[in-house]
Amino acid sequence: MPVRTPDRKIIGTLTVFASQPRVGITEDELHMLESLADIAANLLELRKLRSTVIEHPRRGRQAALAGSVPKTWPRCGDLHRALDRGEFVLYYQPEVDLATRKIIGVEALIRWVHPERGLIPPMDFIPQAEQCGLILPIGDWGLAEACNQIQAWNHDDPDNHSLLVCVNLSAGQFARPGLADHVQSLLLKTGTSGRQLGLEMTESSLIPNLNTAVEVLAGLRALGTSLLMDDFGTGYSSLNYLHSFPFDFLKIDRSFVARMADGDQALQIVRTIIELARALNMDVVAEGIETPEQNRLLRDMGCRYGQGFLFARPMPVEQVSRLLRLPGRILPECVESPPSPRILHDLMS
Q: CB of 125 within 8 A of CB of 88?
């Protein structure tokens, strides 16, 4: 079976060996081989395109912000006290159906409300939490808080039972023994259905032990949770092992979305990821959508879901709760610029 590039050039052949001699193949088997050849072509194209992509400026801004915080802060003791005093909070950013603007889920994002320094973004304390060994208790708090919030939203409106609340798992959390058992105990303790919980992880968290990763993901999937690969396209493991992982969603990294209007190459990267996900029966969530043009391009390429400042910024639970009370959970149109939390509040009051 020939493996072709998007412009139909043959770059290789796909050969499948059978344990017993065969004479001819069925139509279903032919379709399966064609799908496998398409997947192989998409993987090769994504690797080639990605190798030319430079780092997104946003990462540079994050590094600059992180560098503005003294290296001596926060110390382990600061993080311990913050956890004990309940200074961590979850913000939530809506994820929407791009065609209807309906909120189909939210991503939980941790923040630190410091009594003197104000709102601290995760980039300024998560690395230190990992070094201090506090990422597990902080992560456990975040999971429990999200599960409790799911129940609160369900109680507020029965229609919210269809809402998916996604929580990021760190590499340390993913590597912990008995992760699936821990998640199951949280679901039982809070009375939360697994189908309303989404667990996001990056490719790098799967690399250390791929065989174990497959087992852990299968255990989480058995609980009914949705599995999302975050920042897809920025690492390498997915190109070789993605077909083995039972993911439900691929999240396109915001760096690719930001450059879609820059030229055909950046656009082709996003198109390749969407086609790859379609071949593997996965849905796609595009991150970092900030302009109507990005939204249009993604929709034209068949991307179904997205999140970004065009729709809503990460916001406190009270503001998200007001959004969820909108008729049909449909966000208002915003033609000129992304709606700020203040504007959204005015629209709903």
A: no
